[in-house]
Specification:
The structure is a single chain. Helices cover 29% and strands 23% of the residues. It is α/β, with parallel strands linked by helices. The protein folds into two domains: 181 residues, Alanine racemase (TIM Barrel, Alpha-Beta Barrel), CATH 3.20.20.10; 124 residues, Lyase, Ornithine Decarboxylase, Chain A, domain 1. The strands form three sheets. Strands 1, 12, 13, 14, 15, 16, 17, 18 and 19 form a nine-stranded mixed beta sheet that branches. An eight-stranded parallel β-barrel has the order 2-3-4-5-6-9-10-11, surrounded by five helices. β15 and β16 form a beta hairpin. It is globular, with a radius of gyration of 23 Å. It starts with 8 loop residues before the first helix and ends in a 16-residue tail after the last helix. Pyridoxal-5'-phosphate binds next to α10.
Length: 429
Amino acid sequence: MEKKPFVTLAQLREIDQTYPTPYHIYDEKGIRENARRLKAAFAWNPGFKEYFAVKATPNPYLMRILREEGCGSDCSSYTELLLAKAVGNVGSDIMFSSNATPPEEYALALKLGAIINLDDITHIAFLKDIADKQGYAFPDTICCRYNPGGYFELGTDIMDNPGDAKYGMTHEQIIKAFVTLKEMGVKHFGIHSFLASNTVTNDYYPELARQLFELAVELKEKTGASIEFINLSGGVGIPYRPGQEPNDIAVIGEGVRRQYEKILVPAGMGSISLFTELGRFMLAPYGHLVTKAIHRKETYKHYIGVDACACNLMRPAMYGAYHHITVMGKDLNGPSTIYDITGSLCENNDKFAIDRELPLIDIGDFLVIHDTGAHGFSMGYNYNGKLRSAELLLCEDGSVKLIRRAETPADYFATFDFEGADIQVETAD
Ligand SMILES: *Cc1c(COP(=O)(O)O)cnc(C)c1O
């Protein structure tokens, strides 16, 4: 199945009148429809809630759209907490996922009344100390993150390696943590685990759910804790490559329901709420990085140089990740060449595609790089003094809105103290 852009060449030409490439553009209609499919898939669980993983795409316009669709925010930093608050997500609309978390971040999470997900047993004392110093009561709701160790397998496939991951508590630790927290007066408990990333299979969530549901039953038996929610976290993936079979969220929701009815209901735990913290699944397919071909170079390979670079989309350089590319206005059955598509960083890994067969590209052609709606713009950086691009929203009514302007040299220079060093700087020519 060929991947089709959600924008047309005519739309890109129109946008080009106002916003130069490169930019990320997001599809409001696609985002809303997908969020509704997720909600419908888990409608059997009355307490179900998706906490969008803010790190995937920390843009308040998009977070607000998701909030309108019933989603909270999953945050892991001070600024992510501030963003969540800015769009109206406070209290139990925020999941705060800790891992080597600094004290001031915990303090803000306490202040906002976020649900705190403790990454480690030592964080109980760490959080208590902050609460005491800042004059906050220790929360009466706490979530603990579980790491079963070993490998996470589905059938004969090894999906990921939790035993090598820095996150979560061991089985023994999570039992101890529950006992301690209960003694400290915590009344409402949750458990969380994230065992595999970008899974393109309908079996991941149901298998994760099975493990967490069994753990919940055991924790209740051994500690008497009142477990009120189970957080399946992120990890439901998307098909980056054409021809990959996408996940069917309705099938996933049904698979989780079967485990719920098999394990939790008979244990008298049939009122537990399920939470998710999806990032990639919520937004990745509904974002494109739009760039233009500006150079053709013929040496030992055929290169097309574009006006975007790895600073706009790091995944190919960092993970060797595949992102599909559509050359706009070119016939897929027409003449083609094997290209490397490169950015302008002084880094040889700044390539959006290596040895990719694409229709013949002319200078000035628009290239749409697919599936950049999550972990795209947000992983951007300023290497080589490159500036972050604009973010645009293709609204449901077909209009295009600027939801984050492009950085300027003045933004890049803003944190230098030029005056203190008595240096004159010009931020434009
Ligand atoms: C990154 C992350 C997510 C989202 O992961 P996706 O792969 O984007 O679904 C959810 N929860 C936590 C704690 C994370 O770190």
